């Protein structure tokens, strides 16, 4: 067995789907953002404020390596935009891009004060970021699923991909 790294834009459903997927596959679930908050004893906004976004991305890269133990990992929205981190995820497991429409993502995140990028950007700027990252997620993921589908469909589709990958 290998780890499964879920990636996609903020609000695409990585954590929500990840918990259900972990239950379906009988594996541990780890939310990378929560893992970082616990390890660093600081909130994500505090990390951004004190050290900046590049430091936070370095923490993502560091901690993703600690989680390569058959876990279902909900990465942060920016974790797999780092090519090195994405390569590590591919080598230590499988990476799946949950491709959810911008409108759905935005409606889920627009009032979330724990997301520095949401608080610092307009809807138009977030759409631009979404479009830019979308191409990177596609390039850096092994698989892509339709994040606009129901939770059960998304979970089943990813579970099939995991079973297929592990049988080959």
Question: Can you walk me through this structure?
Answer:
The chain is an alpha/beta fold. It is built from 9 helices and 5 strands. A 5-stranded parallel sheet has the order 2-3-1-4-5, with helices on both faces. Helix 4 (53-66) packs parallel to helix 5 (83-92). It is globular and about 45 Å long. It starts with a strand and ends with a helix.
**Name of the level-1 CATH class:** Alpha Beta
Q: Span between N and C termini? A: 11 Å
Roughly what percent helix? 55-70%
* CATH T-level fold name: Rossmann fold
Q: How many strands in all?
A: 5
Features:
168 residues, alpha/beta, Rossmann fold, five-stranded parallel sheet, 5 strands, globular
